[in-house]
Amino acid sequence: MEILQQLWQIICHLLGESGFSKLTWENYAMVGISFVLMYLAIKKQFEPLLLLPIAFGMCLVNLFPDIMGLPTTELLTKAQMLDKNLDPSTYPTTVLNDGVTYYNYTQYGGLFYYLYQGVKLGIYPPLIFLGIGCMTDFGPLIANPKSFILGAAAQIGIFLTFIIATAMGIFKPEEAGSIAIIGGADGPTAIFVTTQLAPQLLGPIAVAAYSYMALVPIIQPPIMRALTTKKERSVVMGQLRPVSKLERILFPIIVVVLVATLLPDAAPLVGMLMLGNLFKESGVVDRINKTAQNELMNIITIFLGVTVGATASGKVFLTIQTGGIILLGLFAFCLATACGVLFGKIMHKATGGKVNPLIGSAGVSAVPMAARISQKVGQEENPGNFLLMHAMGPNVAGVIGSAVAAGVLLSVLK
Amino acid sequence: MNNMMQAFILLLAGFLVVFCVLILLIIVVTLYSKTIRSVQEANRKKKEAKIQVKAAKAEPKTKPEPQVETAVTAEDDGEIPGEIIAVIAAAVDAVYGDKPHRIKAVKKSRSSRSAWARAGALQNTRPF
Fold first, then answer.
1. Interchain CB distance below 8 Å, B3 and A166
2. Residue A293 DSSP code
3. Percent of chain A with pLDDT over 90
4. What do you get for the CA distance between the two ends of chain A, in Å?
5. A97-122 mean pLDDT
6. Residue ranges of E strands in A77-148
7. Tens digit of pLDDT for each residue in A157-191?
């Protein structure tokens, strides 16, 4: 009989500790959302490298919230320590005003709490930029520097969204700036800006930024088709000139000197991006180049993905404020795409029809997804049209442009 | 109201700074690209001139052999063999699949992109 009673107590204890008793409906709703994201990542292959870790982190934190738990320190008396079967001599002590010696009983935080420090302290975004720099070919941009204009045009979405978010009255200017930067479609930049301007909004903004980056294939094509004619989409662009090695090597050095001098706040992002590119183009640090673009990039992507997803716990995420952030982020992203395409149309007219306006949408800096979308939409009209390399120019210009826009927001709002 | 004024000023400043920085980059990149290309072109011409001078000095005294004329084949006069057309038709069918399609003409492309480069580009853009 006693055995049965103890068994029952153990079962009750396990049930009390299980998710059935601790989780709320918000947690289950978020688990459902994470399943949808996993489906999009695996079945539809929407940026799976990002979306899959984000979705899984989201799922895990809602099933086991303590995985993001903060470290805590309790002050216990000697008797309380002995009650817990702890050896007081191995713990540091604190003597309070009452003259009693207390033992600092520290409980460590959850796994994701520690991994998240890289996001919170702004360490991961520049490291991601280092890897992106190693993988980026600035050749199309050097061959056709006018692409920089399309990269700048897409940043208009950021500043227009900032006005709208401020006008809504529910966000402070710093928060509005952090929300607006989602329009840059650049996850690392969005995180970098938000950690400095509105760290309390980091979770929703990071999730929104990365989700929209992953959903570029769904969001961008309808806007591109709506703003262009069939004739414009069919334009075949001439082949780009070959770029010499010297031009490629000098490019990152010149850009970092210019941008870091003019906008020091953008220096960590642009600096690491250009360092990575110099690794690649110099050709003398092959080992470092390979590590930065493969092992380091993959490790940081895993840490960043799961911890960004883990910020989306039900109670924090399913609020009106987060809904506002998600909608404004989507608006910023759509506006950035539209501004890029419209500037592409202006360039199309200005060059007498030599520029395909579809490459303008690649001015948002989701590299290389946005450029691939330009290629895909262009090829729907003309299967023999290869816009990818032409779209890579505005695409990498968008990375620099969003880092510059981030520098402006930081220097004014910080 | 104060916030809105600040937001509007930031909007203008943001436009101005982002466009100015990127236009400055356009100018700098264009200038240094032109400089490098002109220097490299000058170097190339110098090298070519040197090679020509050397070649002229070492010119053989024997008469050059007469060139053999190549036979004109069906491809040379612009005709495309039936097998090639069949392969192209099969490739078009593979791309379009079930969609209704019709090949009206097959012409030789003047594109400078090689068949391998086209195949590579297709491979790179296949994920969608």
1. yes
2. I
3. 49
4. 67
5. 89
6. 93-95, 101-107
7. 899 999 999 998 888 999 999 999 998 888 889 98
Structure tokens at B95: 């791309």
Torsion sign across C-alpha atoms A316, A305, A391, A219: negative
B3: distance to nearest CA of chain A, Å?
7
- Gap between the Cα atoms of A361 and A397, Å rounded: 12
Can you say how many angstroms the Cα of residue A147 is from the centroid of all Cα atoms in its chain? Answer: 24
For residue A177, give the nearest of A156, A199, A193 by alpha carbon.
Answer: A193
pLDDT at A306: 93
Domain ranges of chain A: 2-68, 72-107, 114-413
The answer to whether residue A265 scores a pLDDT higher than 60 is: yes
ipTM of the complex: 0.78
Q: pLDDT digit string (tens) for A337-380?
A: 999 999 999 999 999 999 999 999 999 888 788 998 999 999 99
Q: Quote the CA–CA distance of A373 and A356 in Å, as a whole number.
A: 13
Burial class of residue B123 (count of CB atoms within 10 Å of its CB; 0-12, 13-18, 19+): exposed
DSSP letters spanning A24-57: -HHHHHHHHHHHHHHHHHHTS-SSHHHHHHHHHH
What confidence category does residue A292 fall into, taking pLDDT thresholds of 50, 70 and 90? very high
Residue in chain B nearest A261 by alpha carbon: B21
Dihedral (CA of A328, A331, A337, A338) sign: negative
Query: Average pLDDT in the B54-75 region?
Result: 57
Residue A229: the pLDDT is 94
Angle at A176 between CA A55 and CA A371, to 5 degrees: 55
Mean pLDDT score of chain A: 90
Identify the DSSP state of A265.
Answer: G
Of A45, A400, A412, the CB nearest to B127: A45
Whether the upstream peptide bond of residue A140 has omega within 30° of 0, thus cis, is: no
Binning pLDDT at 50, 70 and 90, where does residue B76 land? very low
Q: Which two tokens stand for residue A235?
A: 């334009």
3-state helix, strand, coil in chain A (%, to 5): 75, 5, 20
Closest CA relative to residue A150, chosen from A317, A342, A413: A342
Q: Which residues contact A280 (CB under 8 A, 6 or more apart)?
A: A133, A134, A135, A136, A289, A293
Tell me how many residue pairs between chain A and chain B have CB atoms under 8 A apart.
122
Shortest Cα–Cα distance, B6 to chain A (Å): 8
Predicted model pTM = 0.75
Are B4 and A159 within 8 A, CB to CB?
A: no
Are residues A107 and A72 in contact, defined by beta-carbon separation less than 8 angstroms? yes
pLDDT at B69 over 60: no
